[in-house]
Each structure stands twice: as C-alpha cells, then as structure tokens.
Amino acid sequence: MITSRRTFLRFGAGAAATAASWPLKAVAAPRRFEPARGTGSDGLIFLYSNENAYGPSARVADALRTAIESANRYPRLHYSDLIDQIAGAHHVAPEHVLLGCGSTEILRMAAFAFAAQGKQMVHASPTFEAIEHYSHAVGAKITAVPLTSGFAHDLDAMLARANESSGLIYICNPNNPTASLSPRSDLENFIAKLPTSTVVLIDEAYHHYAGASGMYASFIDRPIDDERVIVARTFSKVYGLAGMRLGYAIASPSLLQQMRTFSNEDNINAMVTAAASVALSDTESTRDFIQRNANDRQEFFNQAMARALKPIDSHTNFVMMNTFHPAEEVIQHFRKNNIMIGRRFPPMETYIRVSLGRPEEMLAFWRVWDLLPFSKNIMHH
Hints:
alpha/beta; disordered N terminus; seven-stranded mixed sheet; single chain; 11 strands; 12 helices
C-alpha cells in the first residue's frame, strides 16, 4: 500500500498531442547531489507525496551511509547537539526547540496537549489532516472552516468560530494541498484577536519553497511577541529526508514542556540525527534544491498555460489545479499509466494535486495528461 504524509493517518497513526519540449537549459546541472530514483521497482512515477525528487544531497547521503554503522546504538547522546544546531540556525535558545518523529509527531503532541477533553480545534478545509485525526482521537470539538475563494485561510470566519473553549488553531502556510499562501499581516492580526488561552500552531513544512515577499515571512525568521505561537518544521521536504522522519517545533519553553509530555521515548533515530546535522550545514545543496523546484514549478505552469489550464498559484513543491471533471477519474487515469498523483481532497472534488518531479517525470505527466479522454475544449479555467 502506498502512503503519504497525509494518508498514513487513516490506517493507524490516527489511533496514534504533447506540448513544447522541456527547457532543460533552465535546470541547473547537478553538482553536489545525486538525483534520486524517480520510479519504484514496479515502474511507478511518484508525484503524490510532495517529496524532494532530487534529494537527499550527496553529503547527506554520505552521512546516512556512515551512520548505519552505529545502528545498534541509541542516539540519545546526539539529541542535544542537534537541538543546539537547530537553535543556532534559528537564533533561539535550545530550550525553544522540540524534536519529533516527523512534523506529524509535533502536530500530535500539540493536539494532545492543547485540544484534548472537549476543547475546540479550528482548522481550514482542505488542509493537512493530521491535526484533525489527532484532535479527534483525544475528544476535541473540531471546527473546519472553508478556504476563501482565493484559497487562503478565511481568518475572519475562523475568528468568528473561535471562543474561550478554543484550545488550538492550526494554520498550514503555505497550505497543503492548495499550495497557497495566507498573508503574513492578516495572520498577525488574526492571532492578536484570539482568546488569550488559545494556542496557534503554524505548520511551515513548505517554508523553503515559499520565497521571501511582502506576503510571506516565517514566524521563526520574523517572530512575533506572543508565547501562544508554535511553529512546526520538517526535514521531509527540501532536505529530502521524508523517509527518515524528523521534524521540530520552535516555541516558548512552557508550551514545549506541555507538548513533551506526549512525545514518544527515543523518537529520533540515529541515522536521521546524523543526516539532519549535515543537511542543515549543506546550504549550497539547499539553495540548489530550491532553485530546481522554482524551475520545475515554472515549467509546470508553462505547460499548463499551453493547454489553457490555470492552476492555483503555487508557493510549494506541488501544484493543485481544476480538471473540471471528477478528480478520482483523473487520478485513476494516471494510475493506469503508472503515475501516482495526489488523492482526492474534499470538498475540492474536481481538483488534483501534482507533486513536482524531475524533468523526465514531468514530461511523462503531460504525455499522460494529453491522453485524458475528456473533450479538451472544456478543460479550461
């Protein structure tokens, strides 16, 4: 069974004619990293889990190979070193850092700490569902608020639904699955108006792909003076370590202490501890991955426009677009042609989410798109 950062929760963790040719010149030649295999042993092309199709970097891969020699040892002695390195990278004290087995464990700890026993958890719809599953598991009252017509969080509507029983607000920005942004200034105003007892969890899994702008700024890089804010990050995306499972939170020590009560013992494995340390220092590869993604994303939009399609503006390493047909039919069409794309995302029943792959994988995607049996004169926005 194929699972993703989203879909694994459903199966147990909750109980816990082709267009113009590809402009290869626009993509930088590989220098410091080795391209990852894009297909599985069964020939499938994976464009469904928002992974880094190029990672990990060569330096990180070397660290993983070396770390396996210590697989028989617990990595506890290295936790503090990694925490210190993350803290230094973000200019915070180590007591402001909490590690997790992927950022999904960070979300679980937050849900258990702040949304349990009938408290309200407010989130957008659609968004990354882990927080909803975890909150449901501890008896939270879950309030889902539709995104705006521009695919941003409807912060006015979320504020109207929040009250003194609201224990946790979840904001995924950029949002998964829509790849859209909610303006930073709007988020600040929203947080300031929430009840003083309400904790806000901002999931920045796709931060590196968002780019700096007047609309977006990380709540780690540009923090606000509010101890109710938790920011979650992951090594699964730009660093290419999705299979190794490491995430972390940056927040006030008091919030992290409440979350730590619900962490798993020895939740960080020895290999990812070594790999993450190298990934943080391998800034050149990180820049390369970000640039490659920008090139791949632009080419996706070029190909879409050549077909009179208009995807949602993307600030991530995936794109969501309206097919004007049942999404499940499109998903199955690609599956029959050995390409896995994202699943359905209710209530956006005609939209598909496509993770960006390597150039040859995206050429395959568009070849299969052009084989869709739908009349092309209605495939527009």
